[in-house]
Write a structure and sequence with these properties.
Length: 72
């Protein structure tokens, strides 16, 4: 499960969805093992869309447009 850490007063909170609690068979008050590691989440295109995006980026007129966007 991937979750976001939030600040609550002087503590930090991770919300566990009810469905996940039911799936693993735990309830409020149970002791659980928590492993915290940073995760890099990046959206990924399906191969067909990635191919189209790559083709668009390679076009000279598109490269110029991206350069203008990056500079402004």
């Amino acid at each position: 499960m991937i979750a976001t850490i939030r600040k609550s007063g002087n503590s930090f909170v991770i919300t566990v969805p009810r469905e996940e609690m039911q799936r693993v068979g735990v309830k409020p008050g149970d002791h659980v093992l928590v492993e915290i590691r940073p995760v890099d989440i990046r959206p990924r295109l399906i191969p067909e869309l990635q191919r189209v995006a790559d083709e668009l980026v390679d076009r000279p007129e598109t490269a110029e447009a991206f350069a203008l966007l990056a500079d402004n």
